[in-house]
Every structure is written in C-alpha cells, then in structure tokens.
Design brief:
This protein is an alpha+beta fold and 224 residues long. It contains five helices and five strands; from the N terminus they run H-H-H-E-E-H-E-H-E-E. The longest helix is centred in the N-terminal third of the chain and has 35 residues.
C-alpha cells in the first residue's frame, strides 16, 4: 500500500498535473520570442523610414511643395538681403506636419558672396568645410533637387557652411533674419559662388501669394 502522503508528478498528457516550473519556462520562452519579434519589427520600420528619407520616390520628391514661391518671397520670409548682382535666383516652400522649409538659392561673384555672409556670422566664428559629404546623386524630399540643383551636401571642394538664427548676430543683417537657416556657399568655379539657404520652421511659414508676395514670416528660434 502506497504511503498516504506521497504525490505523483506525471508527464504532460498522462492526465497528471504539469509542474509549475514547466509552464514558467514556456511563458518565459514565449515572452522572449514575442519581444524579439517586436524589436525586429521596430527596427524594420526605422530602416524603411531612413531609406525613404535618403532615397525618396518620385511621388515623395514632388509632394508638399507650394506653388508660386519666388526668390523675392523667400528673401522676405527669411529676412535675408539678396545682393542686387545675384543671378540664377531660385526658391521653394516645402510643407509637412512636422516643419516647413523655405529654400533660396542664387549665384554671385565670390567677393559679393563674402560680403553677404560676413554680417551673418557670429563674432569669432568661421565657416566650416563639408567633412561628411553625401554621395553624388543624393537627394532629399525637402532639398534643392526640387529646384533643379545638386544638393549642397554632396560637394566638398569649394564648399563652406554656416548657420544663423534670429537675434543671434548683432548686425543689421543679423537683426533682419526671421528664420533659422543653414547656409552653404559653393564656389563651383573660380570667382563664382552659389549660395544655398535652407530655412526651417516648426511653425507654419507664410505661404506665397499668387503674385509671389508674402506677409511677414512666422519666426522660429529653433535651429534645424
């Protein structure tokens, strides 16, 4: 006769209760598998978003651009004083749910470019080189390729970069700045420089009127 106090632990499926440790192990394994799948899914989504930003489709390239953006409008909303000698002037306005971008590009003699840039630089600072260039052919959904220009991030030789925000530089030109802007200056041939202005704002930028005019721009003190 078996001892009255003994308990038999059987195997799963033989009609006897399964020990608690076996279920705990199974739950732990299931939790690890579920967590791993979630991490892989999130990483996959992040990689897809990064790829889409780096290599936008044709629809993405053409999306969200406002019509009627002119160089005169872009100069007004950014507060930048474009030299009268500037040629090949181009402009654009890209809008999305996160931020707006005003683009302005023009070509001037290099000496004129230096005079344009000097009062926009903070005292004691220098423009920097492009030390991390993008590959040739690189485009971005809110970039200058929409204006028919190569992206300035792809150039190294003859390229200098600076940035400016409202009230950051104590000069008349600095006081006039309305939006934080990143400025690339590319001397693409001796004596001739193209200025690229990428001005971003977390607040909506005033859209150009049908005649290219615009009310005073919404200011943003957040550099991008």
């Amino acid at each position: 006769m078996a001892a009255s106090g003994s308990i038999k632990h059987g195997e799963p499926g033989d009609g006897v209760a399964v020990p608690a440790r076996s279920w705990q192990r199974r739950l732990a394994v299931g939790a690890w598998v579920f967590t791993g799948l979630c991490i892989i899914g999130v990483l996959g989504m992040v990689l897809m978003v990064m790829y889409g930003l780096r290599y936008p489709t044709e629809d993405q390239k053409n999306c969200c651009w406002e019509p009627n953006a002119t160089p005169e409008w872009a100069a007004r909303v950014t507060g930048l004083r474009v030299p009268e000698t500037a040629t090949d002037r181009r402009a654009g306005l890209h809008t999305n749910l996160q931020y707006d971008v005003a683009l302005l590009a023009f070509t001037v003699p290099t000496a004129e470019a230096d005079r344009f840039l000097l009062p926009l630089r903070r005292e004691g600072t220098q423009m920097v080189r492009n030390r991390h260039p993008q590959a040739p052919g690189y485009t971005r959904s809110d970039g200058f390729s929409h204006l028919g220009l190569p992206e300035p991030e792809t150039f190294v030789e003859g390229m200098w970069i600076t940035s400016v925000c409202p009230h950051e530089v104590k000069t008349p030109e600095g006081d006039a700045v309305r939006l934080c802007a990143e400025i690339h200056a590319h001397e693409f041939q001796p004596g001739t420089t193209r200025i690229y202005v990428w001005a971003g704002s977390d607040a909506p930028i005033t859209k150009p009127a049908t005649d290219g005019g615009a009310a005073p721009a919404t200011q943003s003190n957040q550099p991008r």
